[in-house]
Amino acid sequence: MSSHPEFPLVLTVPGLDNSGPNHWQTRWEALHPRCERVELGLWDRPHRNSWVNQLNLALRRAPGPVLLAAHSLGCHAVTAWAAMEPDAASLVAGALLVAPPEVDFFPLDTRVSAFSPTASGPLPFPALLLASRNDPYCGQPAARVLARMWGAQFLDAGALGHINADSGLGDWEDGWRLLTQLVEGAAAGPVAGVQAGAPAR
Question: How far is residue 23's CA from residue 27's CA, in Å, rounded to a whole number?
Fold first, then answer.
């Protein structure tokens, strides 16, 4: 599906400290020709306006609406950008938001508090929010609140930690399948290792 000429460009949006060689975002970039990373910069000391500006530049340079595959603090970069960008709906075809951390109340890593307060309001494009049951950076109840706030469909990933390189996902084909469902405009159906919930509206 990723090699189809009509498949949108996928932009990965990493979180704090960037994504290393064994992270699913890095593997996707190596596997899929139409998958590129947004270079946000300041990876170890994030600054919300800087990250939002870098994301905005990448989206405006892209050839047509893109799919966003965001992880961790990258999810907050996406939602902060969308809250400030009136053209967001025309620039993004859909977003996969994976393991967003808690940034407002006693975050595990205080550096993420640069994105507090959390952007509120529904996203103007389809979004799936995938959260783990044992993510140390954000409990599932809080992740469900984020999904409702952002108008995203909530997906239960099971016990996968922070859904990063340490989770042992390899190429994470299930995650790529979720992106495919966004392209097809389908509601998230059964995916191995993922339980779909009702849209968090």
Answer: 6
